[in-house]
Design brief:
43% of the residues lie in helices and 20% in strands. The chain is of the alpha+beta class. The chain has 2 domains: 246 residues, ARM repeat domains (Serine Threonine Protein Phosphatase 5, Tetratricopeptide repeat), CATH 1.25.40.290; 107 residues, Immunoglobulins (Immunoglobulin-like, Sandwich), CATH 2.60.40. The strands form 2 sheets. A 5-stranded mixed beta sheet has the order 2-8-7-4-5, with no helix packed on it. Strands 1-3-6 form a 3-stranded antiparallel beta sheet, with no helix packed on it. Helix 8 packs parallel to helix 11. The longest helix has 15 residues. The protein is globular and about 75 Å long. The two termini are 26 Å apart.
Length: 367
């Protein structure tokens, strides 16, 4: 039987958080709480539905005044800190969910609660309705968080204002005001914590999809300042790099050269069964007289339900090739069924990409 993340929120988890909640809420009834959590719809709920449901059930036991219940949520979060091993605490999403579900009408108390709860369980989803309802106030709060002494709060400042945060509520204000978001990212781009810088790079990547010139301007000013900054920018520009954008590639020394030759690109088969792998091989050679920086990728054009082909680019390697150097690669692309991608039988295509230039497209069938 397949394991799902939602299965981490089980009876043992509810029993354990019940012990902690009881320390905060004197008249808390753990048996009643457990019964209400595991109602007849429990098995049909997905992960986030489960954590929002837990937040709703918990609201029945907390103070009816949100100013007070938000303080109880903070206290529960502080007592849960370190209570679970890493990877076991996913269910703690019910804490930011409570603020999201019950606190939008109380901006001030919710900001206080979010700043504390995010130290246990990141609140990037919980802040989205606040950006939607109070955009200017929320950006002011975000600037304050960007200067917070706790790196987890600083990381929230970047992650919460991403225009394309995965699985999160879309916020028109963030999509339409990238320069406001950039003011926050410019504060955090040189943060000492890598987790914060990673969030900045993801935020920049979001912006690059609609406003590439803004990210190019930022890159022009900062490329080469440090190894950490170069790493941040490479991750921030990943979408543009995969599109073969010449300006993005140039930051990292990659440009098309006729001296780099693709040789003997072969597929192991013209057809692949769902559940199996497509194996392929090729070689590259530097036929010139100088060192070349080479970025190697491949693109698979997947068959979709309506019969169109959609490309997805996969990185292979970045190498430096000496004159006359020859390197062979063997790779495979899995067509194992996974929950995040559905495969469709029919014509597919694959090609190798060298420094942004596509070579030698070949067809194969998925059967």
């Amino acid at each position: 039987m397949a394991f799902h993340l939602k299965d981490l929120i089980n009876t043992e988890y509810i029993d354990r958080i019940g012990v902690v909640i009881q320390e905060v809420v004197s008249d808390f009834d753990p048996a009643k709480f457990k019964k209400l959590v595991f109602d007849k719809e429990w098995e049909n709920r997905e992960l986030k539905q489960r954590t929002h449901h837990i937040a709703f059930v918990l609201s029945k036991f907390l103070d009816k005044n949100y100013a007070n219940s938000s303080k109880q949520i903070v206290e529960i979060a502080q007592k849960l800190d370190g209570f679970f091993e890493k990877g076991e605490a996913l269910g703690n999403l019910f804490l930011p969910d409570f603020i999201e579900d019950f606190g939008v009408a109380d901006f001030e108390n919710s900001m206080i609660a979010i700043e504390q709860v995010t130290k246990l369980m990141s609140c990037e989803f919980a802040v989205r309705p606040f950006y939607k309802n109070y955009p200017e106030k929320m950006m002011k709060q975000t600037f304050e968080w960007a200067k917070n002494e706790d790196y987890r709060v600083r990381r929230l400042a970047s992650e919460g204002c991403r225009s394309k945060l995965p699985w999160a509520m879309s916020v028109k204000y963030l999509s339409e005001n990238p320069l406001e978001v950039m003011k926050v990212l410019e504060i955090l781009a040189f943060d000492e914590e890598e987790w914060v810088r990673l969030s900045v790079s993801n935020n920049l990547n979001d912006i690059s999809k609609e406003f590439p010139e803004i990210v190019f301007d930022f890159s022009d000013k900062n490329i080469g300042k440090s190894l950490e900054m170069n790493k941040l920018l490479k991750h921030a520009l990943r979408t543009l790099l995969k599109k073969g954008d010449k300006r993005a590639l140039a930051y990292f020394g990659h440009k098309y050269s006729e001296n780099i030759k693709l040789i003997d690109f072969q597929l192991n088969s013209k057809s692949v069964k769902i559940g199996e792998n497509l194996e392929f091989s090729f070689s590259v050679k530097n036929s010139g007289k100088k060192l070349e920086k080479v970025r190697l990728e491949y693109v698979v054009y997947y068959q979709k339900a309506k019969g169109n082909l959609t490309p997805k680019v996969y990185k292979i390697a970045e190498i430096e090739m000496k004159p006359d150097e020859y390197v062979k690669y063997e790779r495979k692309r899995s067509f194992q069924l996974i929950s995040t991608r559905k495969f469709y039988v029919g014509l597919h295509k694959i090609a190798v990409i060298v420094n942004g230039k596509k070579f030698d497209e070949k067809e194969f069938s998925l059967v």
